[in-house]
Amino acid sequence: MSDYQFDVAIVGSGPFACFTALLLAEQNMSVGLITPEHSQPLDSFLNSLSACWPTLNDPPTRADVAHGHDVALYLNDFCTQGVHFFKNKFLPLINDSNNWIESKCLRIGLKDFEKEELLVAEKLGFSLIKTPEDGVYLDSTNSILCKDKKIFQDNFIQTLEKNKVQIIQSSAIGLKETQSKCFIDLNNKNKIECEVVVLANGLDIAKLIQRFEKYLIPMSDCLYEYESNRGSDTPPMRPLSFRASNGHICGTFIQNNKNLFLRISGPRFLLPGAGAGINLTQTKIEDKTFKSIEKFHKEIIFPIFAKELGFSSSEEFLNKFEFKITTKKILADCYPCDELPLLGEFGKLGKVLGNTGWLATGFPAGAWAAKIICDLILNEKSSHLLPRLRPRRLQSAFIKKHEDL
Ligand SMILES: Cc1cc2nc3c(=O)[nH]c(=O)nc-3n(C[C@H](O)[C@H](O)[C@H](O)COP(=O)(O)OP(=O)(O)OC[C@H]3O[C@@H](n4cnc5c(N)ncnc54)[C@H](O)[C@@H]3O)c2cc1C
């Protein structure tokens, strides 16, 4: 006997899970959202830069080589669609629009080969506009930046609850699919019975679907947040977001009255093991690693902020604001399947759906993937899905049941 019965159970509670839950609940589906014990939905969002990037994080030239030009353009556009959908659908729905701010979004090549890569990406039509500065390009769509991540999380959880999404605090440890139903075992010994499972557990997907192990490449990264409360004696400055060094470094700047916030992820390549293929979250990181990251910020990243924010030198910028570190963390997410956001069925019988597009595509892709997954669950097809990514065996008993009601 099951402890819970839902139309759809979603494993995980990151952005993709929460977007999907809300869209399904809006369609009167009963939805269970499974978040690990002692965690809240969108905790993973708090551990990010919280920028909605309008295009692929890594240079789109990479996807071009891996998947061909059409697919690479589709993937790049996937993120842009996601930003629009996030802004126009989710932010009004959760009443959080005032908590986000648009910013120009720069791509910066630091080394010659990175500049070359950006030049090729521009030529291939990847929505980049050359600026007069050497190696600096502007994305043709703005990014949007979250001012207060906790407010976003609170508003989202309230809306999930208002829409009767049931939040269950326990990890999924087992998954079974039969012709008619799916069953999930939870760590607290409870059982869930549902028509469809959506896997949204990111890096941990292989713990439930073993064959994913070989596709997953964990990536570790560092998150730094710097804050200054010395902004009151300066005219308001425009927000800024940039991605540099082929996506190894991301930075955002926001001014909120007298408080200034710089959020930086990277550089990944200074982490032990070059940051690729290793999950460092359980590893003790030596102080000297943090020191070298902070030195890199000072010498390479702060000058970018200073220049783009109109200061004559990095010293002037740093002396004026005396930024203090408020967050310093090593985190991991995943680099699956060579950047391809696989949308489709993962189980044997077509009742387990999911999305893997975690690292390189970020939240906006999660928003757009949620829209597509909902289309698939409700209609078995989505006009926004590249045929190559379409599930082959998605079962329709669930849809019929709803039609009969
Ligand atoms: C330092 C850093 C900064 C980043 N900054 C940005 C940014 O500014 N913009 C951007 O777009 N992207 C950013 N990203 C990438 C972004 O975090 C990911 O792309 C995004 O979180 C993926 O969302 P998701 O919902 O697919 O998965 P996740 O956010 O990874 O969520 C998966 C969830 O599943 C849960 N889970 C795992 N196993 C189970 C289980 N068995 N049962 C129940 N729950 C389970 C996990 O606890 C987790 O909450 C950043 C990443 C890092 C590391």
UniProtKB/TrEMBL annotation:
UniProt superkingdom: Bacteria
Domain FAD dependent oxidoreductase: 7-375
UniProt-recorded name of the protein: FAD-dependent oxidoreductase
Organism: Fluviispira multicolorata
